[in-house]
Batch of 2 targets.
Target 1
Amino acid sequence: MLVLAPIDLTGIGIPYPGLKRYGTYIMTLWLVTAIAAMGVNLIVGYAGLETLAQAAFVGIGAYVTALMVKAGWPFGLAFLASGVAAFAVGIMLGFPALRVRKHYLAFVTLAFSVLAWLVFRNEQWLTGGVMGIGDISRPTLFGHTLRRHVDFYWFVLAITAVLTFALWWIIRSPWGRAFTALRENPIRAESLGVDVRLYTLLAFAIGSAYGGLAGSLYAPLVEFIDPNPFALGPSLLFMLMVVVGGAGRFAGPFVGAAVAVLLPEWLRFAEGFYLLIYAVLVMTMMAFCPTGIMGLAERLLPARRRPTAAATAPLLGEAKP
Amino acid sequence: MADFLQLLISGLATGAIYALAAIGFTLLWQTSQTINFAQGEFVMLPAFFALVAMTWLGLPFAVAVVIAIVCSMLVLGLMFKVVVVQPLIKQGVLPLVISTIALSVLLKEGVKDVYSAEAQPFPTLFPDVTLSVAGVAVSLAQVGVLVVAFGTIVALQWFLGATRIGRQMQATAQNPTVARILGVPVERMILYTFLINAVLAAMASILISPIYLAKFSNGESLGLAAFVAAIVGGFNQVRGAIVGGLLIGVVDNLAAAYVSTSYRQAVPLILLVAIILFRPQGLLGRREERAV
Amino acid sequence: MGADTILTLDNVVSGYGKMTILNGTTAAIRRAAITTVIGPNGAGKSTMFKTVFGLLGARTGRITFDGADTTRCTPRQMLDRGMCYVPQGRNIFPELSVRHNLELGGVAMPDQSRLGARIEAMMARFPILREKAAAQASTLSGGQQKLLEVARGLLLDPKLMLIDEPSIGLSPLMVQEVFAILKDLRDKGVTILLIEQNAKQALEMSDYGLVLEQGQARIEDAAGNVLSDPRIAQLFLGGGLAPAQQVA
Amino acid sequence: MTAVLEVRDIAKSFGGVHAVQGVSFDVHEGEILGIIGPNGSGKSTLFNCILGQLAPTRGEVRIDGRNVSGKRPSELNRLGISRTFQLLQVFPQLTVRENLILAGQEHKGSRLGRLFGARDAGLGAAADRMIDFFRLGHLAHENAGGLSYGQQKLLDAAMAFMAGPRLVLLDEPAGGVNLTMLASLKERLQAINRETRATFVVIEHNMEFVMALCSRIIVLAEGRIIAEGEPAAVRRDPKVIEAYLGH
Amino acid sequence: QDTIKIPNIIELSGGGATVGNNWKNGSQLAAEEINAAGGILGKKIRLEFVDTASDPGKARAAVQRALDEEPIAIFGPIYSGSVSATLKLTADAETAQIMGGEAANLTAQGSKYLFRTSFGQNVSMPKIANYLRDEVKAKSVAVVYVNNDFGKGGRDAIIKELKERNIAVAADLSTEAGQADFAADVIKLKGANADAIFVYLNEEESARFLREAKKQGLNRPLIGETTLLGQKVIDLAGDAADGVKGHVGLTVDAPIPAIQEFGRKFQARYNYKPDHNGVKGYIAVYMLKAAAEKAGKLQPKAIAAALHGLTITPDKTPGILIEATWDDTGEIDRISFLGEVKDGKQVITQILPKLKK
Ligand SMILES: Nc1ncnc2c1ncn2[C@@H]1O[C@H](COP(=O)(O)OP(=O)(O)OP(=O)(O)O)[C@@H](O)[C@H]1O
Ligand SMILES: Nc1ncnc2c1ncn2[C@@H]1O[C@H](COP(=O)(O)OP(=O)(O)OP(=O)(O)O)[C@@H](O)[C@H]1O
Ligand SMILES: [Mg+2]
Ligand SMILES: [Mg+2]
């Protein structure tokens, strides 16, 4: 049986020896999902904003790539364009939310999520509507086609590595600190010269761009796209993934995506009931370890003594922002 | 003109459904500062309690309704509070929100696997009569929903604002630690919140299932509509739910008739964004003031 | 321990997570007197209050209140036994009105019929609260919010009142007013345990002083003695601050 | 002497509440100005209007003679104006040291440069000095949310100094701070004031602190200035005693 | 190894859950019968059900996985989008994919390994169009459809057929899956003044639509395809369903004993009446059995080859219910029905012969 331990693979990047085409496919899907989830983690975990539209951004990336590739553009260009498109839409979407308080960004993204889905579905001339777009070819690299699953897996792994490094760099830079400041206390941050509007937009747009980039890889991975995976429900699942993995923890999205993508594998014996089990697991997880799997790991590995959020929360409302 | 009236009336009737579902959002927001993403499923589920009572146990409808309400209080009230909310109330909003997302999956899949994936007809509390007033057709069930929605919201508004228990519930939401210091039975207040929400959900379920049909996936669209209604009306005001609900119902119908059927869902959402931009506290909401 | 102690801490240890803050604290608080706790920032004063009131579990040691062991009591049980607590910082219900905030202070009052009268009494004492009775509490100024909190804490008729730095944010006039009320209460037989950084003024009206440092009670003495203790003056009373001037 | 800060006829109403009703004053370079007044007299509201946190109903604020009305707090901060808030405002889940670095980083280099530059934006040493000064050394790597009230208050004040500001507005920096620390805080303010000619405006109810620190005091009551002048003179003013100090 | 595993990659959750569960129950029933009767070529079969969550990406993953284990055939998906996303995989693996999609374009994509279990819209819509022209004698038709791949595909197909027959399209209304309120749609239909209305919605929406139509007194012929005349819609809509007419591809109410017997068995086992997706799942298994027996071996490529041009008759394979033939694009051909709803019952009024006989 295929019991995948994702940790074995991230480190060395070698597809599991027993993996067949499907295994490689699933691993690739996991990476793609993790890229999008990293974006959500930046928005939700670090900057403390809320997004219910990541799937829509994945969709934007997927459609941009599909259309460009079908029109004969090289994949590299389509990939960049997908990121840029998602970034730009992210900025436009962030603007109205700046006028108001925190939760409203979530509401705006929720509305956007549904609107984007409607556009994907209704504008058949462009997006193929409910029939979707098929036959999206995989890129070629130096004249070498990545049609084979394993080749494409390596390609995606390389991109994931680059994107992971980039995000890690952003988060450990002063920008990352500013993002955290948005989460913790935007008013105080503003008074310390942190341009809250700009950083809010940046966090949201960068996170969304990661969604777009993930979408750009998703389209050639599946070789077919239609509006369904870009609806509101999947956006919620991205949030869920990130929090289950551990919001605000760097490895969180990878773990969360692994759970979301690979858990159905592990629960295969349960057939139709796997969603039930998944839901129960998530709820139990939240109840006993709201900091997610990475939070749990930190707690269990005593090496790093860093009080968790729960332990340091002031008992009285003293520091309530 | 008759068409317009028909659209308006139908929209109001559907809007009352949304309002009933939206009350739960505002109630939970006001009393536990949580967004319950399972609210749609909360309204979907009780009808199935009644169906189980009727088809599996062979009980008459009236008894089944009572059973549905009691079961809802146990499952959506007591169990939800003890199993989901209690461990999470101190952990901030995000884990709780995530838990409700998972819960919505659980309820939906549970009903599908345990009962059926098929839509089920559901008996109505009101006789199946269609009234025709000035060329406009209205069914009695719709009127019933409208009246009940209004009544409930008025009662709830009064309860939260004008009774001590109601205010203790609000206090618990706004600052549970201080509420505890002052001796507010915080646990009990949270429980009340969820019991009330459960009863409301059960009522909504029983009222709307004859129109909507009982189906495991009903919560999806209902939840979204209710959510939008709650924001439009004003998240922190129970009476906002009714205005928001009715407005969304009407706007949705008018949009389908006069804008585009394939973009009808978009119009309430655009309204939502407009509201957020120009009146973020919602139509009836009050401004939350003083940030510094 | 004489009959005149109402609260005792016996080797109490407590803290947050892995951190131990109260480190074997031992103290005895006299009945019907004002005791002021002073100490440097981070000494564990507030932690001591939270532990006494049952918000923070004591890891070891024993706390007795009014003759009974209350080491494991919950806040609600402490309230029912006649202790109330006004915490440090800002602790209002921001979206409720001022009147409703006040009213919530009386939740634990055994005789609810007196609540209205008590609220009236408080509003008479602090007219600004009456003026703003219908306003949302979050719209009050910083000091007004603290005042609201103090007034809310004074609603009950406790045997012992824990009050953590009530003077922060209050204008001198208001501080005098609050201290006067505390003295009145003491005269009626209520025990007051007070934390103050405004130490001189607080000790001047207190009966006893308790100096807490690094989670341990270093000095327990009559307020006058504490005030005149040269070590205290140097360590805690800010010897460097405006030595010549004394405020009226 | 040039006025660093000119406040011209600022007024702010919330619905029917007239919190500030036409306040004007100048603050000169190198001055330490105290603002006192009864609770609810409009002091914090005035600060919030000056610093762009609230839009005043009317009036104008000038920095170095330039009208800055309508500028956002972060823009003002980058002009060299920093502040503290009356209610505690730290970043609870960042460590003390991170709090301090954050407080200074937006003043270092360009935004893009910060993205590619050092992790601590070159502020590590400055932060450590600040930590030592406020005797928070043992807490440097604790989350700020776990500090005691007074410690957070000190941290809050320390953050206001991280960027080397020219003008600092402090809203009740002394509340809850131990008197010994308070004396150091006062000395620190005075030292900075001497060395960099930084200007301070301080709202405070602790009269000893205000009297010892400030060279001039403005007294607000019901949103208006009722007295202004040398500390000693203000303290003797019967209007002030009546409204604020008591007897 | 005595049992062979056959993967069913179907919509068990998400928008297609109802459809997928019908298929699941139908195919399970068939598998049990076949196993009780000795299996396929002496081997017992075991169906494995894998959820696509109604998402093409997941469907693709699941099909990929199933193919890695080299099954003799793949069942599903049912949503046409998911079929589109997966048909290349099965073609590459040279494995028969017996699926439930009805979109017209599926069989047009040149896969030699795709097989329908019901009429594609490219077959059913011409029949409806003929019916509208010949029986209803409509000069103008209003179309109301659900805006998903099922409804949109049907809408595109019917409009093409109507145009070819010079029938005007008086209104073209899309509705949402899960839509509750059809007041606006009915008003628009009333305004359109068409000779007939073609309704192409899912079950619940069909029922809600019919109720609203009755409430507002929409007195035009309501014509549907299979779903609209299904028992489920009749149950849900009550007397509002009376009078609707249309074409029925496959129905448990067909006046054919084998089908009715199947309906009873299904009802007894699962306690509800199957819709045509239940029938699709059921016959899928029998298709496989017949093809494997024709090929004489359990080898994927041989089975697929055997299905091409295969006619399965109920006398040899009773489970196929009605004689059916597959051409070399995988299109199914069999008889179908015209029917209407009378007094809460579906009544078959006419049997339409196979297209090619
Ligand atoms: N919620 C908490 N989580 C972790 N540590 C805490 C928490 N609250 C306080 N501490 C730590 O406990 C120590 C004592 O805190 P406490 O609040 O009791 O001090 P205090 O004497 O009241 O000081 P202050 O005069 O500043 O109010 C501090 O050093 C602080 O770091
Ligand atoms: N958002 C608001 N809405 C309504 N009234 C407000 C609001 N903010 C402040 N006020 C009122 O304005 C007045 C001035 O408040 P402000 O906070 O400026 O007082 P302050 O001088 O800082 O008092 P303190 O010394 O108590 O901090 C108060 O009466 C207060 O109730
Ligand atoms: Mg303290
Ligand atoms: Mg103030």
Target 2
Amino acid sequence: MTRFASMRGWALTLIALAMLPFILPSDYYLGIATHALVIAVLALSLDILIGQGGMSSLGHAAYLGVSAYAVAWTTRNAGWPAYAAIPFALALGTLTACVFGVLALRARGLGFLMITLALGQVMWGAAYRWVDLTGGDNGIRMQARPVLLGFDLNNATNFYIIVCAVLLTTLIAIYKLDHSALGACLRGTRDQPRRMRMLGHDVWKIRFVGFVSAGFWGAVAGVLYAYDYLYVGPSALSLPQSAEALLMVVLGGAGTLAGPVAGAIVITVIKTVVSSYVDRWYTLLGLTFIIVVSVMPKGLVPGIRSWMKGNRA
Amino acid sequence: MQFWIIQTLNSLAMGGLLFLLSAGFSLIFGLMRIPNLAHGGLFMLGAYVGATLLGQSLPFWLAAIVAGALVGALGVILEGTLLRRMAGNEQGQVLITLGISFIIADLCLLSWGGDPVPLAAPRGLRPPVFLAGFAFPGYRLAVLGFALAAALGLWMLLERTRLGAMIRAGVDDREMARSVGIRVSRLFSAVFFLGAFLAGLGGVIGGPILSAYPGLDADMLPLALVVVILGGVGSLPGALVGSFLVGIIYNFGTALFPDFAYVILFLPMVVMLVVKPTGLFGRAMR
Amino acid sequence: MFQLSRRGILKTGLGASALTLTGIPARAADPLRIGFLTVKTGPLAAGGIQMEQGMLAWLKLNKNKIGGRDVELMVADTNGVPATTRTKTQELVERQGANLLIGPLAAFEALAVADYTEAHKMPTLGLAAFDEGTQKGAQKYFARPTSSAGQASHVLAAYCYTELKMRRMAVIADDFAYGHQQTSAFLRVFEDMGGKIVQKILPPLNAPDYGTYISQIKTNLDGIFMGFAGSNGFRFTKAFFEYGLGGKIQLVGGLTAMDEAILQQTGEDAVGIISGNFYTPSLENPENKAFVAQMNADYKADPGYYACGPAIVAAVLDAAITKLGGKVDDPDLLISTIRSNTVPNTIRGPVKFDAYGQAIGNIYVRKVTRAGGKNTNTVIKTYENVSQFWTYDPAEFLKNPTYSRDWPVAKNLEN
Amino acid sequence: MSEIPALEIASLNKRFGGLAATRNVSVRVMPGERRLLIGPNGAGKTTLFNQIAGDFLPDSGSIKLFGQDMTRLDTRHRVRMGLGRTYQILTLFPHDTLRHNVALALLGTEGGGWSFWSALKGRHDLMARADEALGQVGLAEVAGRPVSQTSYGERRRLELAMALAQKPKVLLLDEPLAGLSADERETVRLLLEQIPRDVTIVMIEHDMDVALAFADRITLLNFGEVVLEGTRAEVIADPRTREVYLGH
């Protein structure tokens, strides 16, 4: 029953997303929808760590940033075509996650949070300072989005469709991971690492694989980010970006598929739409953090679900 | 030779300032396991409030204490209303304190505007002191002295008073503290007051060097983090040694390896976390 | 090419009045929709708020009219984050139907939206001082009535060499593009004239303390050039005095190192500091006097680098749109009119544009004086009609790399 | 008998701060043997288990499984060598089904935990073997139920099923009967009896009625030290046993 209800919910959501280009009055709104869904991929990737692995990271934007820089640099400075730039960016982003994983997985809980934060700051510092490679604070611009498989991504609707498709792929992959043996092991290491060890599992390796797959999907978000904004600068891998991704996950509901997407949409709307009408939107964003965490500690999606259940009963 | 002497003095003076910044952060982190990301905001708020009080021609040291107390009171309110309910939920605490820091930053901007607000040092401490042929800012030496005095005071508080004994017990083992009848909630309020008080006080004392400006919070918070990670969580000697260590790394590091200035503090932090996650003086975190 | 021919046509007959008579009359009832990109939250908000204040003060003085049309000012807060800047730009252009844009504040923001505004043929009046905007990356729909990053540095270097007879100098600047470009421009002219930059210090933008850097400064210098942004110039100067160096070495500042926003806070320490800028509130022209009075009345502050920009932009726009009879529908015509105009009476003095969209105008060398407890950047020498290329040939100039951390190479550093 | 012991602990020492938790402990358990560890609370029984399992390393001494040294090995390698363990305090995955819990145990020893695409539920062979293991402990009917909806006794049996599913050669049982009703004890006792003799068992248990009947040999620990070791009768008869328990 609930399974059916949730499948129906997903189907409706997907149809709504697919209809968006025809409903929205202008490319501007479609652009905002695109931004939200791009960042939703980042939030989803972080949720592999948080929801399944129980590891809150404050350096997750690093993979987005590295991969976005890789796309921009190879496209702009080396003239690579997209089909070369994208795999390279994904590989580089994933490699970054491997290095981060080796360093950060020595600790748990707060220690883990602090290492990821420090590593993220190091990456930010490098992006800011390594001007030859990154253009420093000026960042790297790209002229145009590529044409992929005859699909001109410079058209807002086309790009939106691609982003939707990638988001859907991410959702399916995470759903599959969630129900796979690895997903089960990952949750096992989250809840009872000692027990998992006693059952013969390589806890470190399981966490590492979870960490790196989160990094991979973060890198996927980075590719989309680079093509979405056609610009990459240090702010793409800054602490606020990482913290925002964390907030999106917690806001929407960690460990759920819909949660991070909902969180990404809410935060994007506050930042882009609400900020046009409310001068003190920064305070509002802070209040959102506080209210959501205090009132719905499990996040919007589980919160609303249980509220609806309560109403029905 | 002069380079080494003056950079050492710089390191020590900056270490003193960092100690005032991070002692409270470390206490709260150690006892309550709250990574208080609003600490930079509280420090900045202290600086702004201090500037306003100085504008009312309060004496400097009184302004520092009043600003500290006001920020401390705010800390107690935040702890009681928002953070206590989040006990044990680190992720929730991180996000709430981050939210608080956003609000503090935005309201400071609203109240004091965007231009930097200077804080005047006490008149007698303004002129440079001449030591063996070169000048060194008198106020910075005073800050170093004050930080050492504050460290001594805190040490006395922690080692010689009943409150201190309870705090230490709580840092070591919270369950144990509870089981021997310490009212942990009241203790937490006290610690949060103390931590926020130190942040506010530090903001005023650091004011003549740093001045109050938007972004001061974001500039200071990472420093507090680095100090605490290097020195060890919840350890007063750790915070003191960590502060001086960061002062030394920053001053000599940026002078000797200018290309690494942007990451000079985070690289040692990563190394420390990987090699000795508890920091120099810290005990294992659960 | 296209620009030039368009300009040619304008010059050879189609005057403004002719256009109004022959073209579709502008509907004066419709307001002129100006998208204003600024920063009102986050660490860059100080400048962004002043930017908005400057714009509002000018509009108030001019009865909310530019080129005879009512203005609808649409202010967007970018938070100083380029991704947000891009979204906000899209909002202003696509949703709010802006006729033109003013801003954004920071160079990296401007770079992030440059391709977008070009692609959408959106006339953009730039404020951020970055050399790319009007040099190698010069854009068609862009004009900057303020200055490039290096424009005032060139002048200042010449002043230091010629008037102050300085020969050995150090440069210190924030370690980001704006700081690099200011110092590199200074370095180039100073060394081309025969001076030596013997020390180059680049503290990180978010340096918590300048003590360590000040301790490194050589003592046998004729002067120090400061390429600081935000409050860093103020913080550096204060520390400079704390370390007992005040008055011993002449400080010379770029566009923002001694900005009005921090001038009063710096107190007596500021006295005697020399800086170069395209504007200063003590200018005697009537437009400026009225503007400064308005700023003082509304915000109790003298306009500085950030506040003056929009007022200069507004005057340039006013002239161009008046010439066009209020008609702004054709972006090509609007931008070419802006660029081909000479505006005699902005608050910074006369403004005209070069072929790259950068204003050619006065650069003022100023010295801080103090009277009645108030600091003033007093003009001590005016260089007229200064190009962003200084005295270099533009074509030759553009063959070189854009000013950066590493170019021109400082050949005379002593360690 | 020159047979290689299933588990051989030699001169093991472990100190925590100033406290000696394990003092020069040497124990040899022969293949197929049922060994009971007894001793008052704090005698160091679970600490010893933790060191055998590899939760932490001893300061000195050695631990061998069938002659192979594993003193410094990772827990998971010990498990692969044939070590199994149940816990005194239940540490199961409460939101998952019993079947899922056993499947995790199977994945631990057999590998195959790296699949990130195919659904765990769809691994029919794995699930069948998990059901089989649950059948052995009489939990076949509730295999699809989440652990949180089962009784305490059922969870104890699930612990056993998870350990047995891994086909251990040496099984450490930490108080398998603790907290059970008389009926449940009897059930578990029967299950323990049914474990074939190719599994060597070392058990900590306070329920002397069951434990003494089950054990071949008994080791008495106190203050981290082996006080004595012998057959059931020897240990019961020894005055030191009374001393340790009554003197405490």
